[in-house]
């Protein structure tokens, strides 16, 4: 292994700009003649917009325009589409309510934008926005998930506010197996609504060149090409070839920047309307209201076990809050990214899940780190832990008994996935060792002696990553293929510019992808540059989410590299007067087998651009692109173990120890992988202990700032012990599985299992805040 | 109003509205975009700079309060070729991912180490109470601050 | 933020004159509460009168059983002051728990006490130590100072200039922070003045108050268990997203219990 190749903890090259303040985020970009936008947002959860009077606003010095949803509709702009069509139980399509970028007749959640004010300065735009007089006719908001199934319809024609009633698995067989089970564990769970809170608030800067008709949108996106596709094909802001979307440095996403939102749509449209660049940067308060939220499920589950403790059936009924509209991928998260994962790591033969996707007068809910898989893991791992307690079994050993064994792969689950490989016991054993499971009773006794309660909890999670085999995804309702593109342009001097459709907003692609490519070509790491995040430079791409970048985007680069090596062998064979089959590529050299004849990678690249001694049947140039479409999902899996201490007098839970042992397949950069796990675990700890997006009965978000929405801080979490085991993915060339979400997937269940181990279950729900825990203890 | 202040060693005389925030002076008037804004309730710490030698949140300071002050931003502590030990430690320990909170985190961490040279892991965690990071889980940030503290003491 | 006129007077007289001349004047101290409020357009003063230039409002002095602190002393200065650490360590410890480091580098004693946020820390010390509040025109006893939610005995235009804290034999402060904002959900300062116990509570009610029943109980028997069992006026306690009144009452008792433990361990 070289010190910069695959497997090395190469220090990140992107860091140099970030630690010196030289990063270039959307809000750092300014354009000559730029104006500033402030959005008009509904103060009501549900209200008819009767009239918008902007006369006073327009009189403010420096105000250029007040544009409303009516204006946008009049310009013929389309709705924001949901990109995943879920089929219901009866075979019909889900009911996707129209989602205009700017509301024009009715507003359906607090913070929903219905207009945009554009002014010379931000101060003028703010002042003017306050002077816009909007007449609202308030309607009774539907906020509560359980109350949403009544007669009052948020969207015309959506009966019971039901977007879909979906199922997966064999219902009759599952119910029969449950009826015959020796023991049935039942559990009711709430998966709390989360607000993503990437530290960089969303922002957009739209620029329109009237002379050429070109639109450029700088925005905080995880997938600029998808953004462009939706804005051109569906919203029809501008034709695709006249729209460039640039996602420069992006300060975290966690899913929330996948989606196409009203604001960037309005900004690029408004730039053309007013003939000036238009810039908008969210206040954090706006982010709370108008970024897509995550999770928000209510679930009842039943697990049947036979007399030996083997799982015989799992039945899950979930109501998922989708918010007021179906966001870009909102429909898929509580269905295909959730129900399909309910086998977990276990050989449960019968599984059935039904999910009601429900509209409410709250912000749209969509993918947030883990997206469906944390919710699935939470159901499976909470019910397994509960079953172990009910049966007096060791929770680790009950899991071990039911795990899919290595000799069972490929393993087809009852919920539509085929796991390619894994060794779940290996992760479990390593985690038990790291946490010193045998020493837990003594630690618990020590805590008791100090007046504190101690608990330990497990989560043996699995996730489906590397989204996704296109044909399968499209068959299941996806509106786009989920391959990834890559292009490797070898320059005449032998260094390399790599273009990836993947996007880095913290993941470190500029480093890991360079490791992969430099390793592949045997050239210095410094000779490889990674370009991403600009539809004007990168041909196409589907972006970064679902832990897919390396497994899919990295594999595309391997394919492109293989094409270059194949071409290079032809060039080298010609130059060295050897048979192509006799030319091998190794360690940066094209070598003629059994000879000392060789050409370096750089020499071949140069020959391709200066083709003096060159095959006549070969095109000049040394650049290749590839689209990689995965055969299957990847299945990272692992064991997370949490230990908590509880102060019974206050109910404060302290996470004292957290062990994560994950199988991500091969690891390109262990330092970066560990960092991804750390961050994911902290977010999971936030979900389990601190974070909760709460609406009151009027649909007002009461956790709308950091004063009330509790973000994990440095002193809320301990050092984490992270480790990996390796079973390489069987179907991608790097043998990688993806690591971006695992931390957030396993940790909530592990932590809640630990908390309930310490204080008893008592229906305790996430987040286990001090008062809730205190009440669980004291009734 | 007229104010003058020194930013990263350079003096500036500015005419700004009284309701201008220090962070806007830094970002908009002086074009130093390394200082970020991550919230509007003075919690996240992304806007942290040094004012007269102490870490402050530049989103919660008015132009008048900064009149006559010595300000240091992330751009003023080191360069790619000559990193401040805290910058170097952040890179060495992989204490950043998306980089958005990083300038504020580094500015606070420098202040912390200067004022409390003997830091435990827990003291670092408590000392970073005013800075939010969503990416790293803080694990490597704590390591970096301790590493830089060691380097500073050595 | 709305527009306003900004002033930085050099004297108290000039400050109060500016205030009286303004349509809707606000005093600006450290600004760590006021500026976020202005940013959210929740206040629109015509004039901001910055008190940072007034020399007489700064400085820390100790003597005759009193620690006297200028209102424009920043939290970080109180936390780090050798004089206070020596003579009134409970106050430096309390100051070190306010907000976060950056906020402590700007926020001031006077700003906090004048604002009287129900969840601020300093009011527990003002009440618990029986401080005397000096203003531009008079002195006010702690027990008369805090009146209701964000309401104090200060008249419009009156400037809090200095606070004298009597030095007890021993004292301790315990705070249960709001996990999100880190403000006090309940903060309790217990002080022993020659066997007479004062208990100042912040966070729990509309403003800081003395827990008189607890004071009586502890004056008779200064033990953690007595604090834990003491009656607190829970009927008047705040109830919000983060803590019900009942839970706050529990926290007041537990914080008091722990403060007494700390105090006895001195």
Helical segment count of chain B: 6
Q: For the terminal residues of chain A, how far apart are their CA atoms?
A: 58 Å
Query: Quick check: average pLDDT of chain B?
Result: 97
The CATH topology of the largest domain in chain A is given as Aldehyde Oxidoreductase, domain 4
Q: Going across the major beta sheet of chain A, what is the strand order? A: 3-5-1-12-9-10-11
The CATH architecture of the largest domain in chain B can be named as Roll
By DSSP, the count of extended strands of chain B is 5
Q: Which term fits the overall shape of chain A? A: globular
Major sheet attributes of chain B: 5 strands, mixed
What does this structure look like?
The complex is a heterotrimer of chains A (779), B (154) and C (266). By secondary structure, chain A is an alpha+beta fold. Chain A folds into three domains: 197 residues, Alpha-Beta Complex (Aldehyde Oxidoreductase, domain 3); 318 residues, 2-Layer Sandwich (Aldehyde Oxidoreductase, domain 4); 146 residues, Aldehyde oxidase/xanthine dehydrogenase, molybdopterin binding domain (Aldehyde Oxidoreductase, domain 4). Helix content of chain A is 28%, strand content 23%. In chain A, α6 links the parallel β10 and β11. In chain A, α14 runs parallel beside α15 and α17 crosses α18. Chain A is globular. The model of chain A has no long low-confidence stretch (mean pLDDT 97). Chain B is of the alpha+beta class and 154 residues long. Chain B has a five-stranded mixed β-sheet with strand order 2-1-5-3-4, sandwiched between helices. The longest helix of chain B is centred in the C-terminal third of the chain and has 15 residues. Chain B starts with a strand and ends with a helix. The mean pLDDT of chain B is 97. Chain C folds into three domains: 47 residues, Uridine Diphospho-n-acetylenolpyruvylglucosamine Reductase, domain 2, CATH 3.30.43.10; 109 residues, Uridine Diphospho-n-acetylenolpyruvylglucosamine Reductase, domain 3 (2-Layer Sandwich); 96 residues, 2-Layer Sandwich (Enolase-like, domain 1). Chain C is 35% helix and 25% strand. Chain C is built from twelve helices and 14 strands. Chains in contact: A-B, A-C, B-C.
